[in-house]
Amino acid sequence: MRAPGSNAGVAAGDVLLAVENVSLRFGGVKAITDVSFDIRKGEIRAIIGPNGAGKTSMLNVINGFYHPQEGRITFKGRTRSRMRPYVAASQGIARTFQNVALFKGMTTLDNIMAGRTLKMKRGFFWQMLRHGPALAEEIEHRRQVEEIIDFLEIEHIRKVPVGRLPYGLQKRVELGRALAMEPELLLLDEPMAGMNLEEKEDMCRFILDVNNQFGTTIALIEHDMGVVMDLSDRVVVLEYGRKIADGVPDEVKRDQKVIDAYLGVAH
Amino acid sequence: MELLYNIFVGPFAEMARAPDLLVQTLWEGLVSGVLYALIALGFVLIFKASGVFNFAQGIMVVFAGLTLVGLYEAGVPAFLALLITIGVMFALAVCIERAVLRPLVNQPDIILFMATFGLTYFLIGFGELVFGGNPKVMIADELYLPKGAVDLPMFGGLVSLQKIDIAAAVIASAMVAGLAVFFQKTRIGRALRAVADSHKAALSVGISLNQIWVIVWFTAGIVALATGIMWGARSDVSFALQIIALKALPVLILGGFTSVPGAIVGGLIIGIGEKLGEFYFAPAILGSALGRGVESWLAYFIALAFLLFRPQGLFGEKIIERI
Amino acid sequence: MFYREAGQFKTTYAADMAVFPILQDKIGIAVIVAAAVLLPFLGAAGIVSPQTQNFLLQVVAIPFLIFSLASIGLNLLTGYTGLLSLGTAGFMGVGAYACYKLTTYFPGVNIIVWVLASGFFAAGIGVVFGLPSLRIKGFYLAVATLAAQFFLQWCFIRIPWLYNENASGAIEVPQRTLLGVPVTGPTATAETRYFVVLAIVAGLTWIASNLVHGRIGRSWMAVRDMDIAAELMGIKLFDTKLLAFAVSSFYCGVAGALLVFLWYGGAEPEVFSINQSFLILFMVIIGGLGSLVGSYFGAALIYILPIVLRLLPESLGIPIGGATIEHLTFMIVGALIIFFLIVEPHGLARLWQIGKQKLRTWPFPY
Q: Can you tell which superkingdom this protein's organism belongs to (chain A) (predicted)?
């Protein structure tokens, strides 16, 4: 698999995505209030915070599923306030979900192949015949998908409908589907929720490998502090939709506001 | 230009020209609206409590009407026949719960929806097998339902109101009021609302799902019987009614799937809109030759237009998609 | 023992991606195709009487194929893309009436061209009624398709231009020939019509199979299974749904044109009523949502069951009235739908798969 987006005009260490003064409301409910942070190319950026802090909403804003009322988002130097999710996807933002959102009726292979939809160019006519260029394209993508399957060690469940897989494997297939998009920015929403220790270790290894081998920038939400502190380069902390801390793990760990948010504070 | 005139001026000029006819048309619309609302009410009851979109409500109306008339024709006195029919609707509710709902617990909504298609077909076959496929005349006189018409002088003309229609409107209102009390004030009503919110949570506090389902389907059966009597008294009891009953769908879209008042308001809007369209707008826009029979599809288009602006219905809450 | 893939190693992705990867499946398909082609020659070979031959083609095989095609059309929309449609018969009607008008205006052009072209008209109408699917889902969308059903049927009744102002209000199919042989109209033999229908249905099935096994089919299923995730992966929901409506309506339109031109020989608007829509939906449910072979199974069960029910008491000497049989058919179909939804929501197609799985391990299942 080639390193995705290596030809984009953003060098390692530069800001890949900048979130500026974003606010998001649902009716009277404020989900996110005036949050700004950035994600640099090649880093693993964690977003943490207590339940209901607006972490998932933040990811939804980044990949265009929610439209913030205020603020700007700049990805690869292009600024936007509203865009459809498929535009975000075509610019190179991929995503996994808190509650696994796989295509339950399809096999592992088809799920990951579906992740390559954007890369497949042959039109309706060739698809109809499934010969010549369409078949060649299909085979080429199948080869690349098989590499992902190898990488994630899920060869044995290639042809199993994902609805029948155990939770841990479903999470892994979902990661595979996101990787198939060859993203520049990978958003992981609680990739280790509900896993046992062994599964968590596997998942950590995959995340680090993706980051190292393909240079993919990763933003992840996670509740397991041990995992967050070990994996991430920088951490942003949200509480009640506001940013309360931002920095390297050691800094954040000692921040009084973060400690208060997690342990509660006597008023 | 002429088209715009035909849409925005012509029909209204026509209405103003003969206000007595307009009142008559509105009344007709109101009455068919009440009947749509009655069918929709049966839908809402079942949808609220079991989350099932009951496609079979229309055939239940026909089935109830047929049973009543069939029993009477077999020599059973009218009111005894009514009682037995109520018993039959209860038996039907029990059978549906046993044979359809219980085995399909926890299936996706769409599967249950399709199961009610099967139920519809089964009841059509069963009804025709037992009572024959011919339309029957409702035993309105024997049930002491009023007949004849009241003529009201109005705007220099006569507006004629069928007494049976007035009775239908009164009975519908009474039923809605009764159901509202039942839902809000009684213990069973509270259990019903609990089940509607979450099957599992209701089970965990000791509410018997099976019992609730039987009660709800039985109540819907009673509503169906009342609808069958009213509708049958206006026209005939026939299987054609089952197609007309599909109009409860647009009614529900307007009113929202879980709102009893919504079903009523939606029914009235659709009923009146349909009649105004049929008598004023369609002839003006499409010409008198083509502009007939638009009643068959107008309701769906009204609902569709409405959906595009307010996907959650009149009384529904705004939907926020989560992931 | 005989149905087993042991020893068949796939060395290329192409082989692994084939629609029938197992040798025995390939043989099975070849046998079915051969049987279908040879069916009209049973009479000539003296195996069945000419009456039976005609019955088999006109009453069983031709309508079965046409309904299979319509089921495939609906299955692409409802089974693969998850969009429930109750307007199938309306779209079939568009195909039939479009074909009728086209062949009236251009009688010189081959009728088969027009049968296929009429599919595009149905596709166009299908897309128009699919537009609301951008904003509405589920039951709500069913109302949009009901609107299509009732509106289109109203058009077939009210617009005299559609049926060439015939006094009867019905379509009467004119005679058209292919290479000098009559294909439509009263003089066309059942054999000719059968071959035309078989060729079209087989060809369109092959195309449908190609579509659902490639990128487009995966997009459809992705939208069906989890539309939000599909959108976040770069699948354009609106385009995907509209494409499903277009392709589905194309299939239904062609099926409608075939129904009138190569089976009935004429049609009243009643042919395209809501009940027809329901029957085709039942074929899809019973056959299996999201399965092409299931569409054939469903069409076979729903269409051929009543025929068997009609013939069976007769041959057994049990006197049952025709009306009673019809009512019994309704009851059985209704009960079957409930039965399948309870026991096997994926329909006959899944039972078929389970059967094949059993066969693979037979006679040593452990």
A: Bacteria
